[in-house]
């Protein structure tokens, strides 16, 4: 399969996550991804984009220009990468340690486990800041 790319531009609002998941599921169906691959990438996109929509744009003084998010899904025979690009506040989720695992449900902390969950499904999770943009790349094996 030659390298292929799909993109989606979003306004980071209440509809963004659902629109992004619908877009990714259409790609998964078109490309015949396995249920495990589709689930892992969709779950990771949901987690990352929910956090971006919820927190990256909460201070208008830190957002240059209109708030935007762009998704770029690229794939070849071996890899699928999903890049999430936004112009929100700088934040590298790969540097934030997850809370410790609880020994019981009563001791469990709510929140903060998203990166751990994403790392469980993804082969690689990378972050860079490029000018005024955050770039979070989610990578999975294609097969």
TrEMBL record:
SUPFAM superfamilies: ATPase domain of HSP90 chaperone/DNA topoisomerase II/histidine kinase (SSF55874). Keywords: ATP-binding, Kinase, Nucleotide-binding, Serine/threonine-protein kinase, Transferase. Its EC number is 2.7.13.3. One of its GO terms (molecular function) is protein histidine kinase activity. Residues 12-139 form the Histidine kinase/HSP90-like ATPase domain. PANTHER family: ANTI-SIGMA-F FACTOR RSBW-RELATED (PTHR35526), SLR1861 PROTEIN (PTHR35526:SF6). This is ATP-binding protein. It comes from Achromobacter sp. HNDS-1.
């Amino acid at each position: 399969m030659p390298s292929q790319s799909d993109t989606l531009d979003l306004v980071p609002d209440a509809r963004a996550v659902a629109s992004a998941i619908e877009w990714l599921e259409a790609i998964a169906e078109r490309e015949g991804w396995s249920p495990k691959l589709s689930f892992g990438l969709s779950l990771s996109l949901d987690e990352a984009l929910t956090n971006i929509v919820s927190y990256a744009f909460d201070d208008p003084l830190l957002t240059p220009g209109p708030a935007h998010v762009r998704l770029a899904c690229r794939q070849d025979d071996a890899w699928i990468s999903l890049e999430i690009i936004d112009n929100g506040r700088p934040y590298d989720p790969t540097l934030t340690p997850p809370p410790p695992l609880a020994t019981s449900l009563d001791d469990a902390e709510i929140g903060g486990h998203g990166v751990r969950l994403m790392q469980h499904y993804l082969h690689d999770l990378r972050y860079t800041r490029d000018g005024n943009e955050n770039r979070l790349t989610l990578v999975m094996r294609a097969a």
